[in-house]
Amino acid sequence: MSWLTGGLYAVLGLYLGGWYLGKWTGNFSLLLFVLSVVTLAYWLAERFVFAPRRAAAARALETQAQARAEELGRRGITRVDSDVDGARRAALAQPWWLDWTAGLFPVILAVFLLRSFLFEPFKIPSGSMIPTLLVGDLILVNKFHYGVRLPVINKKIIANQDPQRGDVMVFRYPSDPSIDYIKRVVGVPGDEISFRDQRLFVNGEAAPLQRMPDPGFYDESLMRYFPEFKEKLGQVEHRILVNPQYQPYYGADDKISFPFRENCRYDAQGVRCKVPAGHYFMMGDNRDNSQDSRFWGFVPDENIVGKAFFIWMNFGDLKRIGSFH
């Protein structure tokens, strides 16, 4: 079995190495599932096959040692020079390939269950959610807030709360589900969402917007200030960056294609979309620097990962640790 275990570790190392070097895209949920199944097989084999065999071998050593001592005793020899305890410990000891498989099963299973059904950590890779979330923030995502889903296939089996306007949500990017995105929910099924002249409208009503005092938000990476506003979606009040003087060009671009593309109308002032059933309209808080539903369409319910709610670490600024809206 040692050669089989060595081969499995070689495959694991090759997979992780290629993932790290960008040769292929890894799937951490699938990897944890496979590791859980493989280590479970070793754990069961250890519990019901290998451990009983070692225990039987230890008992046989004790029986042989006792029989030898009795035989020598009948011959008048009372001092027996033997290390039965040492031999017994050696017989009962797990080999390395069981230490690194069956021994890891409880830890891998705990991580798999915790990550799949309770909380999952993520790292913010881009500035699309500035000023709410900064590049380098390490966040926690509540995996059961929107319902319990089966790991790997992401199939919802138990419903919970529906996403609400204003939630910060992690989801699988519709165009490439292997990539996780994080944006804010601005439109739920049935809403008509407009973003025109740098203002957000929900069902024809402008989202309340209040400008923050100058000089605004200072972006350390760009070493400049940006206009900062306080916006309210439903009961959630949050900050956004938007420059009223900046007017991105949307246009009636027929090259923009995504499911339910017919629900959206583009022109020089912005975009207007009717959110279809079972889908959500997502936008980044950094409105001038966010690739979101304005450009690639709606997020289906089956792509939802969970609700982001807590910054647990930022190694560059420990004061960022805490909850956010």
UniProtKB/TrEMBL annotation:
Example GO CC term: the record gives: membrane
EC code: 3.4.21.89
- Known catalytic reactions: Cleavage of hydrophobic, N-terminal signal or leader sequences from secreted and periplasmic proteins
Pfam assignment, any one: Peptidase_S26
Q: What membrane topology term does the record carry?
A: Single-pass type II membrane protein
- Subcellular localization(s) per the UniProt record: Membrane
Would the keyword Transmembrane helix be found if you checked this record's keyword annotation? yes
Name used for this protein in its record: Signal peptidase I
